[in-house]
Structure of LANO_0H18118g1_1:
Amino acid sequence: MLIPVRLLLLQHFFALLQLAVADLSVAKPIGGSEYSVSSNTVSIEVEWTDVGRSPELDTVTQYVFTLCTGSNSKIQAISTLATVPATEITGNRYTVSIDREAGASGSYFLQVVAVSPEWIAIHYSNRFTITGMQGNKPAPSVNDPQGPSPETMKIGPNGGPPPIDSASFSIPYASQTGSYRFAPMQTQPGSVVTATAWTRQNPTSTCSFYATNTATPEWYTTITAGWDYTILTRMNDVHPRPLPEHNGGWYKPAEKMTLTTRKVNRYQQ
């Protein structure tokens, strides 16, 4: 599933975050490395170093590894490769396996998300190349070998958000009662309109107001599912004709008139 990845749906926590310096630095894969698919997969060792800032790595409970492509300003997540408890990590390294059907041959980088009870740290490796891939998702070449800048967030006092489970998005919004709500993905419009009347996709929800100030919110944010489709666009390479009349932009005004003009004398007493 191709989803716009800015922080793996964690961009909605900006109202709660506090920026801090990076806690770890991804050392491997090394920028400019080349990997080839063998036996339908390619294995890549991910290694990171502790730079001694918050969150401390001994407080991390989980790591999430995601294969990404695209520019630093437009990150595209290709596939979540592994979600690993920190207890299974040895020596700040982990080897991920990438299926050849995940995407096309090209330029990639890895996203490493470290989750602790109070922090979420998002880091990226430098870019590398994979050949022998047979998937349909494009992996365009990017001249900059350095990956996107890291981001570190301090989340709410009650700890981190719940794990993102695809089943959470199927529960009607009005029926959810947790601190974090889940909204379904905006679906791709069809090419043909068959409906003859307007209908609601979801029932209306009630609204109530606080009578006094409250110390903590009832819920923190809404997490929206990512897209499962790709919008393809291209430039119009048809050259315009030289004159407006050739492009349908010129016409004779008289041909558009339905009434003829006539002179009206000014009223005089």
In short: Residues 253-256 form the longest helix (4 residues). The longest strand covers residues 74-85. Residues 1-22 have pLDDT under 50 and may be disordered.
